[in-house]
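By way of example, what follows is a protein record of this kind.
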Amino acid sequence: MSEKKRLGELLIDASLITAEDLNRALKMQVGGNRRLGRILVKMGAITSDQLLETLSSQFQLPIIDPDQEHDPSTKGVLPRYLCSKYEVLPLGLESDTILKVAMADPSDSEAITDIENFTGKAVQPCLARQTEIHQAIKRHLRLSLSDVFNPQSYTRYAKVASTLALVLILVVAGFTYRFYIQAKYGSVTRTAEAVIYKNHDLMVGIDQSGKATLLGRGAHANGYYSISFDSTASLAKFIDNKKDDLSSNQYEWTQWALSKGH
């Protein structure tokens, strides 16, 4: 009985790659656990469909549709993060000891070993397209706590959480700044005729002609102010004379409002 041909030999026999392509891919494979077929696809030597058809011939496995073959009762057999890591999808159980698994590469012994160790069941590989496996994982497997709190996805979720935290900090900072500005400077209303400043129970209005009006109540005064002047300089002089009627916040604010009105 002749020895079963390896993937590289099958690809050369099918005139899909050259011996030079194979040697280059094998050199790239040294020192790592990457699959030869995946390297050849990344190199552009073959397409993913050509690889799949060659693997189908090598392992004498039909190419299945993971959506049609998937049994919903296997949803909890493998966590989503493990399926995404190895590009696999659990399809169904046979005799409670054999797990049928859709795989893009049935020669991936590392994936098979890890799945068998995780489930305690023997893995029966079924060949399926990589893109269809990815789509089926999203459709059939929900995220669980084990998907969130595992070393593979933790970094990704941590980055998302950090981004959300940063956005929240910026939003809170924006509201805090607006509150600070509102408390310190109050509101400013601009119309075609005048600019009106309001804060600390006082209102300063300055019209287009330069006339200035002060309305409101001084913190240490009896009654309310309602007085107008021909210029902001006259109002500033009046405020200086009535400084004792105002709180320190009111006085500082009126100085700021008048400086803006010049």
